[in-house]
Design brief:
Shape: globular
Helix content: 25-40%
Number of strands: 8
Strand content: 35-45%
Order of helices and strands: EEHHEEEHEHEEH
Strand order of the largest sheet: 1-2-3-4-5-6-8-7
Largest sheet: 8 strands, mixed
Radius of gyration: 16 Å
CATH topology of one domain: Aminopeptidase
CATH class of one domain: Alpha Beta
CATH architecture of one domain: 3-Layer(aba) Sandwich
């Protein structure tokens, strides 16, 4: 397990899946805002890659996020789009509704940065998030991510186009912190 101040990132357990499905992926609005594709329901028998881990896939590493104080599942975290040639990856996370607004997001981003830069030896991490996702923007910037641009009206979410913000962090910037 990778540990931050408040959270741990560990392997996905079978018992995590029903909780994540119900509390995270069955939420139409949140699911539509978090994914780059239209929301769709996930059946209990589905082997959807957002929930089930395929260890043969090497370009993304999914984690379950637990609160260290009680080992309680509070969400998911992923390093995805891992490019071993350019030594870069994207950062993603999703917190259960009960875990939002408690400062866990910043800690999750910090642990993902440690994993990406220290464990995997990457050079660049990137985050794309909706411009009105203030919690993610705050978590990214607290960890040293720099706003690199706005992708205007690039995300179709619940009947409207929304702006996305692109943020990046380089290994030397992370080390200097």
């Amino acid at each position: 397990m990778l540990k931050g101040e408040k959270v741990g990132l560990r392997a996905r357990y079978d018992e995590d899946i029903p909780i994540l499905r119900t509390e995270l992926y069955d939420d139409v609005v949140n699911g539509s805002r978090a994914e780059s594709r239209p929301w769709r329901p996930i059946s209990p028998s589905s082997k959807d890659q957002r929930l089930h881990v395929d260890d043969s896939v090497t370009d993304h590493v999914p984690f379950s996020v637990v609160e260290l104080a009680g080992d309680t599942l509070i969400g998911t975290a992923t390093l995805w789009g891992i490019d071993t040639h350019h030594r870069s990856a994207h950062v993603g996370l999703g917190l259960l509704p009960s875990a939002r607004g408690k400062g866990y997001g910043s800690d999750v981003v910090a642990v993902l940065c440690h994993y990406g830069f220290v464990v995997r030896g990457l050079q660049r991490l990137q985050i794309e998030t909706l411009a009105d996702n203030f919690a993610m923007l705050r978590a990214a910037e607290r960890n040293g991510f720099v706003r690199e641009g706005v992708l205007r009206k690039s995300a179709w979410v619940m009947g409207e186009f929304l702006d996305e913000v692109l943020l990046g962090l380089l290994a030397p910037e992370w080390t200097a912190r």
